[in-house]
Amino acid sequence: MSRTQSQRSVLPGFGLSLGFTLAYLGLIVLVPLAAAFLKTAGMTWAEFVAAVTSDRVMASYRLSFLASLAAGMVNVVFGLIVTWVLVRYSFPGKRIIDALVDLPFALPTAVAGIALTQIYAKNGWVGHWLEGKLGVKVAYTEIGVFVALTFIGLPFVVRTLQPVLEELEPELEEAAASLGANRLQTIFRIILPELTPALLTGFALAFARALGEYGSVVFISGNMPMRTEIIPLLIITKLEQYDYRGATAIAVVMLMTSFTLLLVINLLQKWSRRYHRI
Amino acid sequence: MSIQATNIRKQFGAFTALDGVNLNVPSGKLVGLLGPSGSGKTTLLRIIAGLEHADPGSGRIQFHGEDVTNVPAGKRKVGFVFQHYALFRHMTVMENIAFGLKVRPRRERPMASDITDRVHRLLKLVQLEGLDQRFPNQLSGGQRQRVALARALAVEPKVLLLDEPFGALDAKVRKDLRRWLRRFHEEIHLTTIFVTHDQEEALEISDEVVIMNQAKVEQVGTPQEVYDRPASPFVYQFLGNVNVLRAQVLAHGGAHTPRPATLEANGQVYVRPHDIEVVHDEPGAAGLPAIVRYIHAAGSVARLTLEQAQSREAVEVEISRTELAILGLKPDHLVRLRLRQGHSFPEDYTI
Question: Is residue A105 in a domain?
Answer without folding.
Answer: yes
